[in-house]
Amino acid sequence: MKNLVIQGNSKMGKNVGIFNLPPKLTCRPTTWCLKGRDGKPRCYAMRGHFQWSTVKQTLYRRYRASKGTTFIQRMIGEINKKGWKYFRIHAAGDFYSKEYVNRWITIVKGCPNTIFRTTTRRRDLRASLSKLNALPNGIVRESLDTEISKPTMGLSFAAINSITNLPNNTLYCINDCDTCGHKCWKTRKSMVFEEE
After folding, report:
1. What φ, ψ does residue 40 adopt, rounded to 5°?
2. Residue 131: count of CB within 10 angstroms of its CB
3. Above 70 in pLDDT, residue 151?
4. 25: pLDDT confidence band, cut at 50, 70 and 90?
5. Residues 32, 44, 124, 59, CA torsion sign
6. How many CB atoms within 10 Å of residue 154?
7. Closest CA to 30 of 122, 159, 150, 147
8. Is 31 a residue whose pLDDT tops 80?
9. Is 71 a domain residue?
10. 185, 115 in Cβ contact below 8 A?
11. Are 120 and 154 spatial neighbours (Cβ–Cβ below 8 Å)?
12. CA distances from 129 to 33, 95, 135 (A)
């Protein structure tokens, strides 16, 4: 695989690097993720172009690469060479082990000019993810939905807009990072987004 990092999509913009992993294999989807309207998953990483065999194969190759001995140096090299200002860890997938979180801690430290953000459901990895979040250029948000609607990790959160009683000072995601100015990378505030 030539590049592990892909360029941001129409939502995130071209100034964003992204590293994705296969959903289900690395994440712990809730019922909300799996059962949406018309019997299709609500999680965008389990529908649409993510269902193409070529995309699935590429995600699995990235997963294998993330376990390899050269992963950290490859990622640091790619991110610094491209000069990504913003980076999204896991628009698809999630952290799958403590060792993998520690790899990202090293990567984030090795790319001080890039701001990294991610969301996670891996409450069992809270201690390691808190260390990632403590880095000056690393932001970790706990993912909330109607099944798990209360934060438990001591982090800011990313929640769907149908959850009630959210604090008033949360950022509202307009699904266009260039227009909003990448605010969710520039602050550690919790955020809310439209349910798809």
Report:
1. -95, 150
2. 15
3. yes
4. confident
5. positive
6. 10
7. 147
8. no
9. yes
10. yes
11. no
12. 22, 9, 10
What are the pLDDT digits (tens) for 50-59? 665 777 788 8
Number of domains in the chain: 1
- Tell me the torsion sign for CA atoms 103, 144, 112, 63: positive
Block residue for tokens 């953000």: 117
| 3 state SS of 37 | helix
Reported pTM: 0.90
Calpha distance 69→121 (Å, rounded):
26
Domain around 73? 6-193
In a domain, 167, yes or no: yes
Q: How would you classify the pairing of strands 16-19 and 115-120?
A: unpaired
Helical spans, DSSP H, in the chain: 31-34, 53-66, 71-82, 98-109, 126-134, 177-180, 183-186
The predicted pLDDT at position 181 comes to 87
User: What pLDDT sits at residue 138?
Assistant: 98
Q: Is residue 1 part of a domain?
A: no
pLDDT in tens, 73-114: 999 999 999 999 999 999 888 999 999 999 999 999 999 999
User: Helix 98-109 crosses helix 71-82 at what angle (to 10 degrees)?
Assistant: 40
In a domain, 129, yes or no: yes
Q: What is the 3-state secondary structure (H, E, C) of 40-67?
A: CCCCHHHCHHHHCHHHHHHHHHHHHHHC
Which structure tokens are listed for 144?
Answer: 């909330």
% residues pLDDT > 90 (the chain): 48
